[in-house]
Structure formats: structure tokens, C-alpha cells
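[scheduler] slot 2 assigned
[scheduler] job type: sequence-to-structure, two independent chains
[scheduler] chain ordering preserved from manifest
[runner] begin chain α
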Amino acid sequence: MHALLQPAPALFALFGLLFGSFLNVVRLRLPAGESIVHPGSHCPHCQRLLAWWQNLPVLSWILLRGRCHFCRQPISPAYPLMELATAALWACAAAASAHQPAPLAHALAVAVFCWLMLLLAALDWQHLWLPDRITWPAIALGLLWQGLRANLAPAPVSPLVAELLHSSGLQPTLPSALLAATLAALVGAAIVLVIRLTYWLVRRREGMGLGDAKLMAALGAWLGFTAMLDSFLIAVFAASAAALLWMLFGKLRRSATDWAAMPLPLGTFLALAAIAEIFHPGWLLHLWLRFSL
């Protein structure tokens, strides 16, 4: 019975391909205001509905040689890449959960988190948009997961939070786990809101969007304070490096004095950093402490 509850990486990878295909549907139709259910999968150029064999994750793109069967227009390689990325992350979720309490539940939670983060990363990269229809459910699911963890695991909060609770005479129970996750979500949103307000006071224009604040709240709910802060620092460094590279190569044709106004998809960097954190939470802070102490 215990073996049946162990997540199989190969099976998770297969389902990852299927959910990666669904991710492509959502990332394309949601910005266009279209239903993600109707009509069925179709070519965005000629609008012809696809046969089942033209809609197989990755395989169909290879068989069709990256072109629509009907109009011969090119099919973006982003389709199979997103499917493969989802499959790889879901397989990693299964493998990383083998020694966790309730490994199947843990693997499913990590897989859902990675799916949400990939979707938000793609939407922000393409449209500079982190929709409420994704970020609010992500926050709710994160808090729900923390509640489930409190019933599944003997230590439902991170070691840092557990130590703080212990020093305060409290135990890491369900209420304390939910309280810690809620506070981490509020702190994550507050970080972005403070930076947003400061930027507006200095430059009289909007900097970070409210979508970034909600994404940070989701990261706090799912990851806890330490890993959420790790994600933020990594994302800021990565976004700054990307801005510098774009300026050096003249991609945006902006002057160096106007670098702060460059439209950077910070949510993309936040989401990708969070994916790393879900597998190795707080690694940046732990690395810093190792070399500084």
C-alpha cells in the first residue's frame, strides 16, 4: 500500500506533458479574453480545428515539422518547450517528494505550484501581466497547502519559523502554520508595495505592478518567509542583469539614464526563482550564512 502512494517520476512526467499542453492553451487564450474550454484546439492562423494526432504534446510538433498541417504556417517552438518544461518539473516534483511525509500529496502540491509559476512566468514575459484569475487562486492554494502540511508533517513550518515559535513558547500546530504562512504572504506583498510607493514618490510614475505584490503574497503563502525573500533577491539580481545586458546590446535603444523606466517582467524572474526555491527552500540565505559566520 505504501508503494502505491509513492509518486512515480515517469508517470508524473507523462501527466506533465498533458498539463503543459493545457498551460499553452491558458497562456494564449487568457490574454485574448477567450474561453479555455471552447472551441477545441485550433490553429491560431487558419482557425482550423486540430485532429487528435495533431494535438499530441511535443510529438505532434515534431511530426508536423513545426508547421500547421492545413495552412503550413509555422508553429512556435514555445509550445513543445513549455510542455517539456512542465514534464521535467513534474518529474522532479515526484523525485524530490519520495522522502517527504505523505509523498504523493507533496508531489502533487509541488507540481501544481510549478505549473502556476510557469504560467505566470510566460504571461508576464509575453504581456507584462500577472492576472488576478491566477494570482489570487495561487495565494489561496498556498494557504490551503500549509494547512494540509500541518496535518501531514510533524514540523509543518520551516526550521526558522519553528525556532521562533519555540522561543516564544509556541508549538508548530495548524493555527501557527497558517499564521506563519499568512504573515509571510502579507510581508511579501508589503515589500512590493513599499518599493512601489517609494518609486512613485521619487519619480512620480508607477514602477512595480500590483500583480507583482500578489505574486509575492503567493510565494509567501507557498514557500514561507525565508524562501520568499530568497526568490525576491534572486529575481531582482536577475532582472537587473537582464536590464544591463539589454542596454549593452542596445535591444531597447534606451539611454543609461533611463534604465529604471525599462519595462521588465519582474514576475517572470520571481516565478522562475520560486521554482528553484520549492525544491531547495532558503538556499541563498543558507549559503550566505555559511560564508558569513
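[runner] end chain α
[runner] begin chain β
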Amino acid sequence: MENNEENNLKAIDFFCGAGGMTFGLSQSGINVLAGIDNDPSCKETYEINNPGSEFIETDIHKLSEKHLAELTGIKKDDDSLLFVGCSPCQYWSIIRTDKKKSEKSKDLLKVFHHFVKYHNPGYVVVENVPGIERKKDESGLIEFVGYLEKQGYKVKYDIINLNEFGVPQTRKRFSLIASRVTKTPIFPETDKHKKLTVKDFIGEHNGFPEVNAGFKDNSEFNHTVARLSEKNIKRLEKTPKNGGSWLDWANHTNLKREHYNGNGFKDNYGRMSWDKPAPTITTKFLSISNGRFGHPEENRAISIREGATLQTFPKNYVFYSKSIGATARMIGNAVPPEYARRIGEAIINKST
């Protein structure tokens, strides 16, 4: 889509991370004034890839509504203003994580609510894990949606699979768009009959040369791959190509998973399939033990760039970080830019 020169929409991207949402909205033609995040490691990546959008490094709990206005020049009751709140979602995720570590993030929707209430923007977008809706009372979603509707916003939200919105993953997300300046609700159109797959995005035919586990790419393309132990390489050698799983070596004396009783995530150590969507690209996609992150054919996990591409970041989006693990966290935590672009496109089409 060509940028819509006639719209004057502008946005603030709360919890912006490395800039997936900002980039996608900008591609649609929305002017993202700033992104807010408390992780300083994201600043360089965000600002270099999103020129013109300022990275405001701060703890959202310590940022006042008035100070945000001073930093960005935004005003109350602006019909052309969009607030986006894609807060960290580990607390509400079904993935087994230490909930104590992520407990501080569980009230971020409520904090975002305060900014919406104070500034009364024309549009509001929220993107998160489905758990925020399943526990909508505890997460603050019921109160938030109730407030929006009381203020006259047209609200639409749903649990969606991003594979129907231009993303080559089975990635289920909670998505909400609210508008108080349009007569009808806003939501991107689906591509239910166009299922994107792994082979549409990665592989040698898409510019990803064959590499080995542990390969380090010092260029900005960053086709870097995590190292694997000798045992894990042998496990992948025994795993059938194009979608195989650990079941083929489950009973192998030297390769079987110790202390594994058959419960838990059965995709761990599996390979992706060329003709299916990728699994959800998480922050741990560099590790074959954390999901079906094995390359469809090569004896390795997918690379940094492959993970970013499956998240729909363009190949010239450069990630700046001190470690591949930190880069993977940036990528896995991001809103896929293509879905963000479609959100922006839907808002623009309804507002002009």
C-alpha cells in the first residue's frame, strides 16, 4: 500500500520494544511520533529503523500523562491521535514462565487505560496474548472495554490467528481496535484463503544460504545461528526433514530425552514444515529445545534473520544488540510489522 498523503493520523506506541508496531504503522502512512519502552537495549534498533520516531526510555509507571504531552506535543481530545498499547504479555501467556518475574507487567493494560482516559485519543489499539481476554476481569480488560464504550468508542476485539493477516505463523493473539470518530467499528480484513507458509519466506530460494549450527554472521543481515551440542546435532540428524519430531529418536539409548515422561510441549526438538505456517516465533526461537524451531532441512535451529523474517520484519531491518539471545527477545516480543501495517491501513481507510 502506498502511504496515504491525505491522512493526518499520528500515533504513540506504548511498550514499543524494537519497533515492529511502529514500523508497520509507518508503512501504512501513520506518523508515529514516539515509542515508549523501559528497555534501553531496544533504543538503537528502534530509532535507526524508524527515523522520525523518538524512543522515550522510561518506566511507564513513572511517566505522567502531562509529561507525555510535553515530550511529544500531543493534545487532549485529538481525533487524529492513535494510542497503541502492546504491553509485555509473559504474565498472561500459557507458556510456562516464572510468573513472579513478570508480575509487574500484569497491570500494564490498567496503566495504559489511565493515558487513554486522560488524552481521549481518536483511536485506540491493543494487541496481546489471548490470556488477557480469558482472564479479562483480572487483566482489566472488562473495565477498559466498558470505559471505551461508555465514552462512545466503537470497539471491536477478537482472538485471531495472524496467519490470516499476512504472517506466516500460527500465532494466536488478542487484538482490539476502538474508534470514537467513525460510525462503525474498525478491523483488518482476513486472508482466510491465503495461508502463508515457511517456504514463502525462508530457504535458499528466498536468499538464506545453507549454514551450520553455530554459524556467526557479522553482517547486518545477521543470519546467525545458535550453537548446538553434539548430542542435539545427532538428534536433528535423526529427525525427519520437513516437519519431523523427536519421536523418531525417542527410544534411542544415547539420544532419548532424560527424565521425560511424555507430558509437556511435544513440539520441542521438532522441525518446521515447508508447507505449513511456522509455529509462534517466541523469544526462544533460537533453541530447538524450546519449540518446533528446527530448520525444515538443515541440522540447526532457525537463524536470527529467519526468525525476524517469519515475524515479517523486512530483510534490511537491522537489529543492534550485545547478544543473539537479546536479539531473539526483541524479535519474539515484537508485533509482526505486516499485521501492524494492516491495522494502520484499516484505520486510514475508515478515517478518510
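[runner] end chain β
[qc] chain β: Residues 10-191+335-351 form a domain with the Rossmann fold fold (CATH 3.40.50.150).
[scheduler] slot 2 released
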